[in-house]
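TA notes, week 10

Several of you asked for a full example with nothing omitted. So below is the full record: structure tokens for the whole chain, then the designed sequence directly under it. When grading your own attempts, check the secondary structure regions first.
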């Protein structure tokens, strides 16, 4: 229950959570007092000729001076409400437990049950009774003279009654919020470290020329100063997230009103959180949607605006925000989705990236291209409406076709074994901080030599593999007759068998001794004939065993040949290694520890031992 949950929270949070609900009964008390004072001034002691409980209370109050009575009754009523609310929480704290066996002796399961549920009913009943009393009496008083003359109604007194109710309720609400803010402010975290912003940066391994070989860390981020972020990227973010960022003081009151009206009018849903509020939430707070968390967020926003400049806040936001695919910050997202540095992006690409902070998974251009496209167009329109771009630029941006990079980076140098060697050495020296300190390690590898060694080793192993007997498909799956269900089955099995470099996974649709029809994960259908069937010829034979025979639903490997045709093949079982060193300095220029790092992480260069038979060959050959 709520009370039980509050007991484990800090004292300030408990007091805040108890103080905030007091606004409702306090406003009710203010309304009731204003009604009673008005009725007393009117001299109303009965209506419809019925002496009710309400009439009795009004008669009792008429014997006192109204103004003195107002202060006294206000204090008494508020004290009564506080006592009843305190009794309610005390009742919820006192729980009786029912024991229930769990299978062995002495074991019990505690189930909390409220001991006194009447406290809640009494508390809220007393709080709402004055409102009911104050509502029935004026209505009855107004209806009584309607039949005779409208002019006898005391409209000025009704206006005064309404103004008193609004005034008392507003003052009570302001006091309640002030108390809550005063209790929450001392518990705010220290934000002085943001003045020297140092986010988590991954460990990166480079070649001697500066080509990226590997990256290790939970957060993929490229820290980019605000002056190096292009204006088109900043404008796209401001257009969709906080157009008045440089005008407001952290909380955009005009934006809150505009967003509320837009949401009520069922226009495009708009948020009221400013960029400063998002920084406070992303860096220090959780994403839970509670009133207390919102109070802390607003207070942190004011502290950030007081300590940091607008450019500093925007720099933190554009480097800290999560944008999907392990990319944090817009510089990393530009590399992830477009394969280019942030300084080279266009208006259309900037709009696509600016749509990611709201929901990185829902507006991901790789996973949800249609929704990402819809949000991109909306951001371009916002940029045009605000004046960041012209109408001509907006038209060109909408028509631009984006090339989204999906899957792994095919342009990166294949030096996974070297990168892993560096990771182990750095981790041994720095520990877990190696993945967050932003260390850049430069090796002696030559990028061109490394790529040539990688291709040569794979080519040699595959040439050997083509001379081996076919060992059969990697898996067999049933293919449903329904096209949609078949596509889902193919997608699922190909996720379990990802591509291995130039050896791509495919599912057989048709199989005969002279032709194979296979389908790729992207829906591409490929026909394999002629020499492309030689490596798997034994699997096409009518006498092939069931575990080897190629048939519909078989998962196999295909590869492009030098003649730009397709051939069916298989993953090799044999391994190999390659290392090239400079004999004058001992610098390693190229190192490949195996056929594929994702398939086998054992480094055959540094971890393999020479076979015993090879150790005495020098003695035999020298004899």
């Amino acid at each position: 229950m709520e009370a039980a949950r509050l007991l484990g929270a800090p004292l300030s949070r408990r007091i805040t959570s108890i103080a905030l609900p007091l606004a409702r009964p306090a406003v009710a008390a203010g309304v009731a007092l204003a009604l009673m004072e008005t009725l007393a001034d009117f001299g109303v002691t009965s209506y419809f000729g019925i002496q009710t409980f309400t009439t009795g209370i009004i008669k009792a109050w008429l014997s006192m001076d109204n103004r003195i009575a107002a202060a006294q009754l206000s204090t008494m009523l508020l004290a009564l409400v506080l006592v009843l609310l305190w009794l309610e929480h005390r009742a919820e704290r006192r729980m009786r437990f029912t024991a229930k066996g769990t299978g062995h002796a002495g074991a019990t399961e505690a189930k909390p049950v409220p001991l006194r549920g009447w406290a809640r009913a009494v508390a809220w009943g007393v709080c709402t009774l004055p409102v009911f009393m104050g509502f029935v009496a004026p209505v009855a008083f107004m209806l009584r003279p309607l039949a005779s003359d409208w002019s006898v109604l005391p409209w000025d007194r009704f206006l005064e009654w309404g103004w008193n109710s609004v005034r008392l309720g507003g003052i009570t609400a302001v006091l309640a919020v002030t108390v809550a803010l005063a209790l929450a402010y001392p518990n705010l975290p220290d934000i002085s470290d943001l003045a020297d912003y140092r986010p988590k940066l991954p460990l990166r391994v480079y070649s001697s020329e500066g080509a990226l070989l590997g990256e290790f860390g939970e957060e993929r981020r490229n820290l980019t100063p605000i002056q190096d972020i292009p204006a088109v990227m900043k404008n796209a973010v401001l257009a969709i997230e906080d157009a008045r960022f440089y005008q407001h003081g952290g909380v955009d009151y005009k934006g809150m009103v505009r967003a509320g009206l837009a949401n009520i009018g069922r226009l495009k849903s708009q948020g009221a959180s400013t960029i400063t509020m998002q920084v406070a939430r992303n860096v220090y707070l959780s994403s839970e949607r509670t009133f207390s968390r919102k109070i802390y967020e607003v207070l942190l926003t004011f502290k950030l605006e007081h300590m940091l400049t607008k450019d500093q806040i925007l720099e933190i936001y554009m480097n800290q925000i999560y944008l999907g695919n392990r990319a944090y910050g817009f510089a990393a997202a530009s590399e992830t989705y477009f394969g280019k540095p942030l300084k080279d992006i266009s208006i259309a690409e900037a709009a696509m990236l600016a749509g990611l902070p709201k929901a990185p998974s829902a507006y991901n251009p790789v996973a949800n291209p249609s929704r990402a496209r819809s949000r991109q167009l909306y951001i371009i329109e916002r940029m045009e409406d605000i004046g960041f771009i012209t109408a001509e630029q907006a038209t060109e941006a909408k028509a631009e076709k984006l090339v989204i990079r999906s899957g792994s980076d095919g342009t990166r140098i294949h030096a996974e074994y070297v990168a892993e060697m560096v990771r182990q050495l750095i981790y041994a020296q720095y520990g877990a901080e190696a993945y967050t300190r932003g260390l850049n390690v430069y090796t002696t590898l030559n990028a061109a030599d490394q790529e040539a060694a990688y291709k040569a080793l794979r080519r040699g192993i595959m040439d050997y593999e083509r001379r081996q007997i076919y060992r059969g498909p990697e898996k067999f799956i049933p293919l449903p007759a329904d096209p949609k269900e078949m596509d889902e089955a193919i997608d699922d099995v190909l996720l379990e068998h990802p591509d291995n470099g130039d050896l791509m996974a495919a599912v057989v649709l048709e199989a005969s001794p002279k032709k194979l029809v296979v389908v790729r994960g992207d829906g591409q259908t490929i026909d394999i004939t002629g020499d492309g069937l030689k490596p798997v010829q034994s699997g096409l034979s009518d006498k092939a065993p069931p575990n080897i025979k190629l048939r519909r639903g078989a998962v196999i490997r295909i590869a492009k040949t030098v003649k730009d045709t397709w051939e069916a093949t298989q993953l090799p079982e044999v391994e190999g290694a390659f290392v090239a060193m400079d004999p004058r300095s001992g610098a390693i220029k190229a190192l490949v520890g195996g056929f594929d790092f994702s398939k086998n992480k054992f480094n055959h260069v540094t971890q393999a031992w020479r076979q015993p038979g090879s150790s005495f060959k020098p003695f035999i050959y020298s004899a």
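Residues 197 and 316 are 7 Å apart (CA to CA). Use that as a sanity check on your answer.
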